[in-house]
Amino acid sequence: MILTELPDLPPRPLTARVAAFRRDFYRRWGRENCIVSGMSRHAEYGLFRQTLSIKCAAQGSEVYFVDRRRVTVSDDTFLVLNEGRVYASSLNSATDTYSFSIFFRPGLGDEIAAGLQRPLDSALEDGSLPVKGCIEFDESLQHHNSKITPVLRFIQRQIAAGVRDENWLEEQCQFLLERLITAHHQRESHLASELEAACWTQRAELFGGSAGPSISCTRTSPITSRSQTSQRRRTSRGSIFCGCSRRRTGARPLRSFASCARGAL
User: Fold this and answer.
1) pTM score, two decimals?
2) Which residues of the chain form beta strands (DSSP E)?
3) Residue 239 pLDDT
4) Domains of the chain with CATH codes
5) Do residues 37 and 159 lie in contact, with contact meaning Cβ atoms separated by under 8 Å?
6) Are strands 34-49 and 2-3 parallel, antiparallel or unpaired?
7) Alpha-carbon gap, residue 91 to 98, rounded angstroms
8) pLDDT tens across 101-117, in order?
């Protein structure tokens, strides 16, 4: 299901004009992949148990109320909410704000997670036998990046161009989830490494050791102000050479999701 306008749902009143739409919407909602892509100044949706989803906004912000948290998604960030999460949302702006969300069909995240953990030889032997997996995403705001944002931009552009094929949507959802799950595991691994390094440092300090190899040196002559200046120059040149304070040249900045939305709408 692909919606190019924000759906007219409770708490807005039921009218004869939207009654047929709501019947069809609730018949399909939460059972299949869905994209909601539209502009609005005011939109409010009450508490509802949703499927796994990813939220974006451009030219404004949209607020999600999750477990007594108030999470604001804006141009530079996106939010992933896990399957089965109950939350509400609100959009209020003096100008039109672009809201873009992808809702994945039930179980798709676990299917992709299981497939990524499955060795190739096992997949070839077992064929189409079902496999079990489980994925629980971090539900904090994340900044747009070079792994996830280009996929979101591509999907958004195709929707704006008129693509409505459900098979295409399934393929894009699977590909996006692969990127999300891979990035999630990489982030978890990085945090685990940082935690291990921090614990090792604390243990070393506790037992009177040091976190790294100690280096001692002896200088027979006193250091003068001229030698200090020379030493600072050598240190500065060394740090620039090794890249510690070196500016990256030729790196193209990542376009924000907002710039893509403005170009496609």
Assistant:
1) 0.71
2) 2-3, 34-49, 53-58, 62-66, 69-73, 77-81, 86-103, 142-143
3) 34
4) 2-110+137-188 (2.60.120.280)
5) yes
6) parallel
7) 10
8) 999 999 999 999 888 87
